[in-house]
Amino acid sequence: xxxxxxxxxxxxxxxxxxxxxxxxxxxxxxxxxxxxxxxxxxxxxxxxxxxxxxxxxxxxxxxxxxxxxxxxxxxxxxxxxxxxxxxxxxxxxxxxxxxxxxxxxxxxxxxxxxxxxxxxxxxxxxxxxxxxxxxxxxxxxxxxxxxxxxxxxxxxxxxxxxxxxxxxxxxxxxxxxxxxxxxxxxxxxxxxxxxxxxxxxxxxxxxxxxxxxxxxxxxxxxxxxxxxxxxxxxxxxxxxxxxxxxxxxxxxxxxxxxxxxxxxxxxxxxxxxxxxxxxxxxxxxxxxxxxxxxxxxxxxxxxxxxxxxxxxxxxxxxxxxxxxxxxxxxxxxxxxxxxxxxxxxxxxxxxxxxxxxxxxxxxxxxxxxxxxxxxxxxxxxxxxxxxxxxxxxxxxxxxxxxxxxxxxxxxxxxxxxxxxxxxxxxxxxxxxxxxxxxxxxxxxxxxxxxxxxxxxxxxxxxxxxxxxxxxxxxxxxxxxxxxxxxxxxxxxxxxxxxxxxxxxxxxxxxxxxxxxxxxxxxxxxxxxxxxxxxxxxxxxxxxxxxxxxxxxxxxxxxxxxxxxxxxxxxxxxxxxxxxxxxxxxxxxxxxxxxxxxxxxxxxxxxxxxxxxxxxxxxxxxxxxxxxxxxxxxxxxxxxxxxxxxxxxxxxxx
Length: 653
Known about the structure:
- The protein contains 24 helices and 23 strands.
- The chain has a 6-stranded parallel sheet. It has a 5-stranded antiparallel sheet with strand order 10-9-13-12-11. A 5-stranded antiparallel sheet has the order 15-14-18-17-16, with helices on both faces.
- The two termini are 92 Å apart.
């Protein structure tokens, strides 16, 4: 290929109509690769009307060159069409119809031009499909292309296969073209293109060959091809013989020897060099250095061995979460073999109800977030749910295209069970400590109550009894009936006062009103006494009939909890107002106690401390009945919510 030809393919000169004659698809694809990559790199729109085989080869190269083919197609910068299918759009009775051609191909070109105001370059193989069997149609199609070039300011690159061994193209097909590329050997190619005679002498050596093998042209031209071969590994004689027999030689991989003695891996494509009469006079050998790829493959094999032997589950999946790889660690942790899960969605490992977890993770990865060591749950093949720690990372091509994700999971079930056991033990120890404090307080309260009762009996009832005894003696000493009657009247007053005092002490120990009239009346009387004695405005809201048929245990618990709460308010909060609300439903009794005091810090440590044994006592009373007590407190006051079920509490195991 001349320097002028390379320039024309790369530059997209408006109005150019270029034709490539090729005998091996490797040469065509290399030219097409140059034509396409230069156009895309310069922001031009590229329309490729190609055969499926050439399309697949080209896409393989473009992706290997780091182009985001999907993105280019999505943006309208690259469009690939099937040449045979496009032909059917405008062929009428075996000839191209000009109107249909402009409506199909012409409109596609104009649409690509208008998208982003781009210049357009086009490659087509439709004429090549026609010219062997329908030359008039091929000639007419070339004329239509030329008309479209003039009206649309585009450049056109087409190709003709000469795989019959020579470059016979009718003059009528040559005429429309501004430039025809006839060389089968691409001088500028990065691949090594080497021409060999049938006796295996080197007769052509391009710059790619010089770069890959290290020899300058004058060092190898005329030399035997064995100069590039490893001892005992020269396959070229057999290849040449197969080509002389008319066989097609597929791409194959082998090894070659560089000038500096280094051995490299190469991919080889061999095509015949023929005369106009079809006689094979030599072969063109196109070699591509794949040493780096081979090294990567070996590294990947080593990595695969490491992955396969890992105790962690290492899973590869596509971006639509389809499993594509599954190591032995995954088999051990999840119970599935690779054959059972490869090709299935990763949701096979998710518990019912957690289907949104993996898509959410994939979205985080797309946003560039890291997903490392997050703990979740997975379901094994046998239905067992296990705890795992998962790290997920994206899998990208060299060009940065995201093609999937890798998830590394470690079974942490035993660790989580140990943590749960430690937490349970800690809660039990904390509960036991709280119970010990509560018992200490109960005993202490009992002693305080005994001392109080003894003191009040001594101070109040004792003094009254002493006064009564003195009065009785005085009664004995009465000299007249009137004096005795007056003394008896005084003694009856002292006795009545003693009875009231004993009754007060009894009510302090247990409210008989609670037994006789129920919770509603008992609370009303207690709150009235409390508000008077403590000088704190206390508002009680309840429906007395709702309180009558409550279970006795519930009534007693609520009464004592309200007593405890109001005692704490009087002792610690400095409140000036209290609100008490009781609300009953069919299944629960809710009691809310609010004050406007100074509040306190509510946390596990303070609630279980000696300073807050009153709260712990409330919790214990509620828990015995299957209920609960919740506390919120701040600088504006404290709220205590007591919830007691009105069904039978669960029996202890």
